[in-house]
Amino acid sequence: MSELRTNRIIPRDGLASGMSGGIIQIVQNFTDTAIETTNIAAYEDSGLNATITPTRSDSKIFIMVSQPWRMANASGGQNGGAYRILRGSTNIDNVQAYLYYHAGSGMSTKYNYGVYNRQILDSPATTSAVTYKTQHIPYGTNSTVYSQYAGRSFMTLMEVSG
After folding, report:
1. Which one is predicted more confidently, 9 or 27?
2. DSSP per residue, 49-113
3. Predicted confidence (pLDDT) per residue in 144-161, tens digit
4. Of 6, 142, 148, 159, which cross-links 24 as Cys (Cβ 3.0–4.6 Å)?
């Protein structure tokens, strides 16, 4: 039986400027524990995270998130919220996923469902363990964000040679 071991994968003709090489390792974590928040003042952890230890400090980490959510507004008013991705305590998601639903007036509790799907290529510049996580926040009075509401959330981390 043969075995190939490497800590860096580069195409035969090298890497062009701004390009990355091959996948060195893949880590995946999941949760199906429902987390909810009504705190409109600050982002809170949404229960999804994963940790990877890069083999090289010049590696990049490709982060893929798939996280089902539900938004609710008990008063039937505007309903919305957002998600973001953090490396440790640092927000690395320059474009948070804003999720809005406007129910109109004269109606009771309103709901909106969806999946937060996001992909980011990060450069943590370390060989120490790195933890990534998602956070969520509701917008609007009486709004609630539920993560993992109707299914399992996944976070996949891939170390890509630099």
Report:
1. 27
2. EEEE--SSTT-EEEEEEEEEEEEEETTSSEEEEEEEEEETTEE--SS-EEEEEE--SS---EEEE
3. 889 998 889 999 999 998
4. 159
Q: Which two tokens stand for residue 32?
A: 């199906």
pTM for this one? 0.85
Phi-psi region of 7 (alpha: psi -120 to 50; beta: other; left: phi over 0): alpha
Q: How far is Cα 24 from Cα 31, in angstroms, rounded to an integer?
A: 24
CA distances to 55, 78, 102, 110, 142 from 107, in Å? 54, 11, 11, 8, 14
Locate tokens 């990534």: which residue?
132
**What mean pLDDT is reported for the chain?**
85
